[in-house]
Model the fold of this input.
Amino acid sequence: GAVVSQHPSRVICKSGTSVKIECRSLDFQATTMFWYRQFPKQSLMLMATSNEGSKATYEQGVEKDKFLINHASLTLSTLTVTSAHPEDSSFYICSAREWASGDRSYEQYFGPGTRLTVT
Amino acid sequence: AQKVTQAQTEISVVEKEDVTLDCVYETRDTTYYLFWYKQPPSGELVFLIRRNSFDEQNEISGRYSWNFQKSTSSFNFTITASQVVDSAVYFCALSEGLAGANSKLTFGKGITLSVRP
Done:
């Protein structure tokens, strides 16, 4: 199956700094990428949906100025957590969707996740 | 609005037992997709199955089987002869519509399965 990578896998940063997480589709072009957040022992919550070359669509309650998403190409999306605080500590998972027009369907692949700890 | 309910939160079984993980969904769409994912302790989501709303055939893949019942809006997952490596969190998920590029995947809360030796 297709592979989605995330970098870094773990990051520890100090409160007030910004952190950038990269998500890449390695062997396919992703029409759409998604960013999820998962707190310990909880489900995945969708943060935003992004399409290449356009602004991301954020879910209700997600601060767009705090969680900056850039989808510069069909294989790369980045999430920047700006002015991070301890409550931003979480597991961030990206997902890339490959559209199969023949089937009018898609395959969605998940990255391995990035564990962010803000001290 | 779409919703996925996984009423069981934690299940513990002894190796070789069969275990069924329940999933009930709500949607107003007639066309939708249902999924099961496994999340082992490493955190990476592992895709298990996708089923569209027009295909009610049950599916078996090795020790895994899925029972899709539109009449009860359920998509249950059974592991036969469970193994310790099956220990993980299992998520059921739903995507509405014709699976357009931006259709959202809604996850249930997940079921933590522990298989004891």
